[in-house]
Amino acid sequence: MSGCYFGDQLLTLAEAIDTALRSIQPIRETKMVSLLDAYGQVLAADLLARQDVPSYDNSAMDGFALYRADLGPGQPTRLPVMGQSLAGHPYSGVVPRGVVVRITTGAMLPAGPDAVVMQEDCRIASDESWIEVDGPLTARLKAGENIRRRGEDVRIGTVLLPRGLRLRPQDVSLAAGQGIAVLEVVRQPRVAVASTGDELCVPEKELLPGQIYESNRYALIGLLQRLGCSVTDLGILRDDREAVLPALQEAAATHDVLLTSGGVSVGTMDLVKDVIAELGRIEFWRLAVKPGKPITFGWIDNCLILGLPGNPVSVAVAFLIFARPLLLRLMGAESAEPLRLRAQADFQFRRKPGRREWLRARLRYDPKQNLVASIYHTNSSGVLSSLSWAEGLVELPEDCAGVVPGDMVDYLPFVGMGME
Ligand code: AMP
Ligand code: MG
Fold first, then answer.
1. Angstrom distance (rounded) from CA 275 to CA 239
2. Which of 121, 178, 182, 318 is the most exposed place for a label (fewest CB within 10 A)?
3. Mean pLDDT, range 150-171, rounded to an integer
4. What is the separation of C-alpha 418 from the centre of its chain, rounded to a whole number of angstroms?
5. Would the CB of 310 count as within 6 Å of ligand 1?
6. How far is ligand 1, taken at its centre, from the CA of residue 261, in Å?
7. What is the distance in A from the centroid of ligand 1 to the CA of 141?
8. Residue 316 in this model has a pLDDT that exceeds 70
9. Share of the chain above pLDDT 90, in %
10. What is the pLDDT confidence band of residue 283, given thresholds at 50, 70 and 90?
């Protein structure tokens, strides 16, 4: 099959993502998972509340449940304690007028009383047979004070969690609080990952002359796992058509996505692109971005192909800015927009307008409490240590002609993008 390369045109990132998103159908298959397996997975359908939370009126404090009308307003009032309502052990029956019931935090409010006084706010008899509420408090106590009403937190029938949500610990906890033990989530995308290059050596082996240690897979697999993908590690593929073609063909037949690094530029050994074009089709492969210009997007049958560059920094940036939003779409997740902060640059940076560019950066407050962004001392896309140093990226738009200290720039923190 021949590839359609969009000529030699560089696509902007926005055009590329737009084009790609239009061709990606979210995975429809769902599965039921238990709560402890649900973290990071995408909720497949709106989850409705099955019950009110709290499911009964209860006390917000350790104290005494009473009738407000039994307090002489502004007068110190002594009342006998008759019984108790403890968490898990409610008081049975109706509380008669003129008495109080000891109550603990979360315990069911017994029938009758309309307020709870905190135990710290009363005088309590040493044998707990009575309490005394002082004058100012008797005047101040409001109806419903220190009472958590049924349904105050969640109302039965309302949307508890929306579809498309990537479940965070607190979301799973909210479901548990409803007595929901299993959740319907989108099946995880099956993603195969391969690094390509004759120079690459696995970390377990001794380097031969001219070799380097392979590092990209260790970033990619971590990023994919944290995103919620099911990953197959294809290891290192040699720069040899006979090795690359069958490996990609087989992976494409059994995965939703094939993610490669290296071999998509214009060098003589950059044959990944050619093999993809041979097995399927390439939608585009040149983006107006820096680092990472050669980013290949295509299909082999129904398998989405993301051919990322080989340079360690380029591959990570290409993943964050390009692959991540596409994978989230495939997962049926809502909103992939990264958090964007405005910060003052403390650096000078010269560049030609034209490509969108990301600089490895860190953020801090200056003494005047302004957010200030700094960048790594070198901007080469081969410098892996720069990514480890960085806590985010400064993003320069296509038309930016350079930065001088004091300019306001966009800063994208790694937190929330799986790089924290
Ligand atoms: P390529 O895009 O294949 O020409 O690779 C660009 C640069 O990235 C070369 O210097 C490669 O040696 C390096 N590179 C490619 N793949 C990897 C990898 N998996 N780990 C570390 N460096 C790589
Ligand atoms: Mg290569």
1. 11
2. 182
3. 97
4. 7
5. yes
6. 7
7. 71
8. yes
9. 89
10. very high
Distances (CA, A) of 139 to 72, 136, 148: 8, 5, 21
Containing H/E element for 147?
strand 147-148
Q: Which atom of ligand 1 is nearest to the CA of 239?
A: 3
**Residue 350, amino acid:** R
Task: Dig out the tokens for 338 from the structure.
Answer: 């990264």
Section 140-168 average pLDDT: 96
pLDDT of 317 > 70? The answer is yes
Residue at 348: amino acid letter = Q
Task: Give residue 198 CA to ligand 2 midpoint distance, Å.
Answer: 7
pLDDT of residue 8: 59
Dihedral over alpha carbons 328, 312, 358, 191 (to 10 degrees): -10
Report the nearest atom of ligand 1 relative to the CA of 265: 2
Cβ of residue 212 lying under 6 Å from some atom of ligand 1: yes
Strand ranges inside 238-345, DSSP E: 257-261, 281-286, 289-290, 294-300, 303-308, 341-345
Among 1-10, 186-195, 204-213, 367-376, the minimum mean pLDDT is found in 1-10
Tell whether ligand 1 has an atom less than 6 A from the beta carbon of residue 314: no
Is residue 324 within 8 A of residue 315, CB to CB? The reply is no
Cα–Cα distance, 137 to 309 (Å, whole number): 70
For the beta carbon of residue 65, count every other beta carbon within 10 angstroms: 28
Residue to mutate, 200, 218, 296, ligand 1, most ligand atoms under 8 Å from C-beta: 200
Ligand 1 center from residue 326 Cα (angstroms): 23
Q: Measuring CA to CA, how many Å separate 267 from each of 5, 10, 310?
A: 17, 18, 12
Helix axes 272-279, 241-254, angle to 10 degrees: 50
